[in-house]
Design goal:
Strand content: 25-35%
CATH topology: Rossmann fold
CATH class: Alpha Beta
Number of helices: 7
Largest sheet: 8 strands, mixed
CATH architecture: 3-Layer(aba) Sandwich
Structural class: alpha/beta
Helix content: 10-25%
CATH superfamily: Vaccinia Virus protein VP39
Strand order of the largest sheet: 1-2-5-4-8-9-13-12
Length: about 230
C-alpha cells in the first residue's frame, strides 16, 4: 500500500488508476449536502471506495483533509475470491475478501464515499461490506451511496465518480480487469440488482439515519449517518 504524504493519501490493495474514458457530468444533491461537512475548519479522514482519483485527492487535500482510496469493485473481481455455496451457486468469498480489503482501525473515518458499489458488487459482499464500513466510521460519520432505480435498465454502465466541486461530479465509465494484470481490460461491470427504499433501509439498519435524494437520471442518492 502506498502512502503519499502532505495530507496523506492511501491507495488500497488492488486499486488502479481509472481508465482514460470520456467523462460525463452530473449534479448531486447528496454530495452537495455532504460538502457542508468538508468546508469546516477541522481536518477530516475520508475513505474513497474507488480507483485513485487525482481530482478527489486535490479537492480534499486542498481543504486540509486526509484521503484513503480502495478500489473495492476491482478487488472483488479477483478470481482467487471465487467460491461456491452449498447450493452450488457461484459467488465471492466475503470472509477472504474482508481479510484483504478495508483493513483499517475501527472508527477511523469521518466520511465514506461508497458511490454505486452496492449495485455492482457480488451479492455475497454487499451486506458484509456495509457492516465493515459501519465499524470504520466514527459515530456521526457520513456515508454517501448511489443506487439505480428500476428504470435504469440492466445495461446501465458502471461509473467512477470524480469530484469536480460544489454539487458537481464527473462520471467515468470503468471496466473490469479479470485477471488483475495491467492493461488486461475485460467487459464492463454489470448492474447486479436494483434496491428499493425498503432494501436500502435494511442495508443500513444499524446506522443512525438515512436521507434520500431522487435524481433525474434514475439514480437514488442516500446520505447515511453512522
Amino acid at each position: 500500500m502506498k502512502l503519499f504524504r502532505g495530507s496523506a493519501v492511501e491507495q488500497g490493495r488492488g486499486a488502479a488508476a481509472a481508465p482514460s474514458k470520456a467523462r460525463l457530468s452530473r449534479r448531486s444533491s447528496g454530495f452537495a449536502e455532504l460538502v457542508k461537512s468538508l468546508e469546516g475548519t477541522e481536518p477530516l479522514c475520508v475513505l474513497d471506495l474507488g480507483s485513485t482519483s487525482a481530482g478527489n485527492i486535490r479537492f480534499l487535500t486542498e481543504r486540509g483533509h486526509k484521503i484513503y482510496s480502495e478500489d473495492l469493485l476491482q478487488a472483488s473481481s479477483d478470481p482467487e475470491l471465487a467460491s461456491t455455496n452449498e447450493q452450488g451457486v457461484p459467488g465471492v468469498d466475503s470472509k477472504l475478501f474482508l481479510n484483504e480489503n478495508l483493513v483499517f482501525p475501527g472508527a477511523q473515518f469521518d466520511i465514506v464515499f461508497f458511490w454505486n458499489l452496492a449495485d455492482y458488487m457480488d451479492e455475497n459482499l454487499v451486506k458484509p461490506v456495509i457492516d465493515r464500513l459501519w465499524s470504520l466510521l466514527k459515530p456521526g460519520g457520513l456515508l454517501l451511496a448511489f443506487f439505480h432505480t428500476r428504470e435504469a435498465g440492466p445495461d446501465a454502465p458502471c461509473y467512477r465518480f470524480h469530484i469536480a466541486g460544489g454539487d458537481l461530479l464527473e462520471m467515468q465509465p470503468i471496466e473490469a480487469r479479470r485477471d488483475g494484470r495491467k492493461g488486461d481490460a475485460g467487459s464492463g461491470f454489470r448492474l447486479q440488482r436494483v434496491f428499493n427504499n425498503r432494501h436500502i433501509e435494511n442495508l443500513f439498519r444499524d446506522f443512525a439515519s438515512l436521507k434520500f435524494f431522487l435524481a433525474r437520471d434514475n439514480i437514488r442518492e442516500v446520505l447515511v449517518v453512522r
